[in-house]
Amino acid sequence: MHIDQILKKKKTLSFEIFPPKNKSGDISSIYQTVEALKDLDPDFISVTYGSGGSTIGKTLEIADVIKNTYGIEPMAHLTSIVSTKEDVNDFCMKLKESNVDNILALRGDMPLDDRVVCPKQFSYATDLIKHIQETFPNDFCLAGACYPEVHQEADCFENDLKALKAKVDAGAKFVITQIFYDNNYYYRLVREARKIGIDVPILAGIMPALNAKQLLRTTRMCGCTVPFELSTRIEKYYYNDDAMQEVGISFAVNQIIDLIANGVDGLHIYTMNRPEIAKSIFAQIPNILKDFYHYD
Ligand code: FAD
């Protein structure tokens, strides 16, 4: 099913998982993750795509199993900066064979290694969206990424927003935000996006901050700011992982309550392949979440 059809009827709750990284290439552990997440009745689960296409096979296999074994709607991420049109067509054909209908169409990060070739067939995510639309008309529901605190390469918020408008005009049916810990950035993005005619659902990407190192890595990679109240708690529990986890979960719960109260279109939880964290969030606010997306 195309996810935009679900979004026309209700608010959504979804999860992101990534193909497990291990030397043996064994990905069976991800199925326990999906099995556990199924208990929470998500509207869809998205599967990341390793930068430069390093996980193509695994992304396809996991999306296939989510759909055909667990009966949950999958969304496969696809990055295009090092892809040719043939690579993209091949990926899309394989998704079609598995009846996977949804793609998060991304440009991907510029490779740090200058020996990696960028064929320049897709300079931006918008080019990828246009290409898939033209080559596979109506086969896929395409989504895009957006950045409440502005993408690192953009020179200003206004130009980043114009790029987002172009992505939506090209055919993105909804967008998912980069991680943020200060909801005010999300509200600014939604407010300004609506002013320039971006009218698709903007799902909020939430990643609980579970330990200080992970949080610092994430903020460096994504360029998101850490609010003062979160940074003081991190300082206090820097060396106490269990307490830090409680801080991260309770901070995420408060973000979610505030987002729901302010009418967020959907919540997309970056699970880090740890379903117990998603379950802890649910355990704290079962009635608020039931009311939000009606799970039993
Ligand atoms: P684009 O939308 O193309 O934007 C990239 C930059 O170009 C921005 O600065 C934008 O303002 C600018 N721009 C866009 N169009 C134009 C234009 N026409 N003219 C001038 N400037 C323009 N990465 C992975 O490797 N794998 C994943 O699975 C993955 N999943 C993600 C999921 C989400 C929800 C998000 C938010 C990010 C994800 N990423 C993933 C990271 C993403 O690949 C990077 O943030 C990447 O640097 C940008 O990708 P994009 O699709 O947003 O690029």
UniProtKB/TrEMBL annotation:
<keyword id="KW-0560">Oxidoreductase</keyword>
<comment type="pathway">
    <text>One-carbon metabolism; tetrahydrofolate interconversion.</text>
</comment>
<dbReference type="InterPro" id="IPR004620">
    <property type="entry name" value="MTHF_reductase_bac"/>
</dbReference>
<comment type="pathway">
    <text>Amino-acid biosynthesis; L-methionine biosynthesis via de novo pathway.</text>
</comment>
<dbReference type="GO" id="GO:0035999">
    <property type="term" value="P:tetrahydrofolate interconversion"/>
</dbReference>
<keyword id="KW-0486">Methionine biosynthesis</keyword>
<dbReference type="Pfam" id="PF02219">
    <property type="entry name" value="MTHFR"/>
</dbReference>
<comment type="similarity">
    <text>Belongs to the methylenetetrahydrofolate reductase family.</text>
</comment>
<keyword id="KW-0520">NAD</keyword>
<dbReference type="GO" id="GO:0005829">
    <property type="term" value="C:cytosol"/>
</dbReference>
<keyword id="KW-0028">Amino-acid biosynthesis</keyword>
<keyword id="KW-0274">FAD</keyword>
<dbReference type="InterPro" id="IPR003171">
    <property type="entry name" value="Mehydrof_redctse-like"/>
</dbReference>
<protein>
    <recommendedName>
        <fullName>Methylenetetrahydrofolate reductase</fullName>
        <ecNumber>1.5.1.54</ecNumber>
    </recommendedName>
</protein>
<dbReference type="GO" id="GO:0071949">
    <property type="term" value="F:FAD binding"/>
</dbReference>
<keyword id="KW-0285">Flavoprotein</keyword>
<dbReference type="InterPro" id="IPR029041">
    <property type="entry name" value="FAD-linked_oxidoreductase-like"/>
</dbReference>
<dbReference type="GO" id="GO:0009086">
    <property type="term" value="P:methionine biosynthetic process"/>
</dbReference>
<dbReference type="GO" id="GO:0106312">
    <property type="term" value="F:methylenetetrahydrofolate reductase (NADH) activity"/>
</dbReference>
